[in-house]
Amino acid sequence: MISESPKPSGSARLINLPVISDPRGDLTFVEGSNHVPFDVARVYYLYNVPVDADRGGHAHRVLQQVVFALSGSFRLKVDDGFEKTDYWLRNPRQGVLIDRLIWREMDSFSQGAVCMVLASNRYDEGDYIRDYGAFQKAVGAKL
């Protein structure tokens, strides 16, 4: 960790959603501004991802997200410009909350994996940082 540079306001952490279980199965739910720290403005999901494909490879200036593996598994790699962390997602009631200014990449999708993302804002191409060097500058990381 580089201590000379200030860390960005962004972070990533695991969150657990509630589960209601009975003999018929499990039910998990999510409420915006309750289980996640924002109102959900957009939901999208990835599926039929080839097992050797990479997804992500960007950060957001403002957007917050929570990423879940609804089925199967995949690796989510997050980077705040100072530290890198890998999360292996495979439990549909556990997600990773990704704050603003966090670089994210996904890989190692299992066959049949389904990734669902809850987003704080609607799609806005201008919110994306797609160049890693520009991301590092935005968070004040030493290059």
From TrEMBL:
Lineage top rank: taxon: Bacteria
Boundaries of every Sugar 3,4-ketoisomerase QdtA cupin domain copy: 13-139
UniProt-listed InterPro entries: QdtA_cupin_dom, RmlC-like_jellyroll, RmlC_Cupin_sf
Gene3D superfamilies: Jelly Rolls
Pfam families for this protein: FdtA
SUPFAM superfamilies from the UniProt entry: RmlC-like cupins
Protein name in the entry: WxcM-like domain-containing protein
Native organism: Meridianimarinicoccus aquatilis
Higher taxonomy: Bacteria, Pseudomonadati, Pseudomonadota, Alphaproteobacteria, Rhodobacterales
